[in-house]
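Last lecture ended with a question: if I hand you only a sequence, what can you say about the shape of the protein? Today we answer it with a concrete record. The protein is DUF2304 family protein. Below, first the input exactly as provided, then the predicted structure, then a couple of comments.
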Amino acid sequence: MALSVSAVLMLAVIVVLLVRRSGLNVMHAIVCMLFGFYLAGSNMAPTIDNFSESVAEMISDLSF
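The predicted structure:
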């Protein structure tokens, strides 16, 4: 649960930065948000979830 909330917050910050600094239209951001919403309800959702969990585990296993 904490991973998904932090991932959502991180992605929200990235979208805000892209809208303000890189010229991303607000309409484009809305389309991307709707795409993610519908993608989450598709058959690919478990695969994407497993991939993101694997990446998060790999990053947490890195030692600096």
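Comments.
1. The CA atoms of residues 8 and 14 lie 10 Å apart.
2. Residues 2-61 form one domain.
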